[in-house]
Amino acid sequence: MAMRADWMRTRQLSPFFAFFIVAVTTIGLAIFSFQRRLVSFAGHDGWMVIIIAALMVHVVIGIMYKMLNQHHTIVDVHTQVFGERLGSFLSLYWIFYYSLYVLVNLAPYAELLRTWLFPEVASGVFFFVLLFLTYLFTTAGFRTIVGISALGVLVTPPFFFFLDWPYGQMQWGSLFPIGNHPVRDLWSVTPDMTYGFLGFEVLLMAYPFMKEAPRSHKWAQLGVTFSMILYLFCFIIPVLYLHEHHLVTIIWPMLYLWDMEYFGISLWILTLLPNMALGLWAASRVAKQTIRISQRHAVRGLSLLIFGSAFFFTTRLEIENLTSFTTSLTFYTLFVYLPLLFLLQSIITKRRSRKPIDSSG
What we know:
By secondary structure, the chain is mostly helical. Helices cover 74% and strands 0% of the residues. One of its GO terms (biological process) is spore germination. One of its GO terms (cellular component) is membrane.
């Protein structure tokens, strides 16, 4: 047992790496296209939706850490609440969930590459190359994935702030009047914005790999704040430059304004690959804990399943349907199921803590 504890400590990361895990996963491909959906429902007040969604994510991360402080992974929490058999069965859902997270990054990026850079290359080629690279990163280990995540956060997102945006052509009055849309409209598009923050739930499996894990909580919250600032910047720029009626017709508004879109799309692979690798790693960890198979075998099997599934999502309509399904599923998983699971865990913990007192009385 002592040898296992020492081995685990050598694989753990400093608490501040939680910042990079959360930041890299919450800055996905949605950053190029989320503006269109927000403006369709919330207009220039869409920046409020970004803040609302970020606050919701902050709350859920707080709930996650309270759950994980008692038990180290979502599989352990399920076992505590539902028992060994039912808990393991329910945990199988997270294999699907994390695999879906990989797929929803893979298919849109392949479409982006085909549309902007290599229209003559088949989607299957991109699927194979991207998944093969993801497989290599995943098998290299969690520490390697997080190291690449740190590189992606330090290099890619800041690139937005140092470009030569067309500031002289912007209409600075486009953000006014503030609060011009009813709360109903803002809330109706909030689930779509929470999709942009998708990925932080990797912490549900990464928690045991953080040294002094409770101390990583503040870093995880800072990661969300960093992503929120980037999303606000990437929303405000197109709104100031483009009319709302024009903006809703553009699939990728940020690329439309980006003079270096070819370089930017290529550079974004530094963010995409650790995203996919973290999702694949988390899915394989769940498989290891529930199905009791080698994590390496789980990575191979899941990679093949994701590769085969990707061929069903090659057109714009198919990808939009995939994104819509993922948005609904993740919203209910993160903002309904996890709080309910935390409530059940709290009730069970309190009841068990009272048992010795009741029996002595």
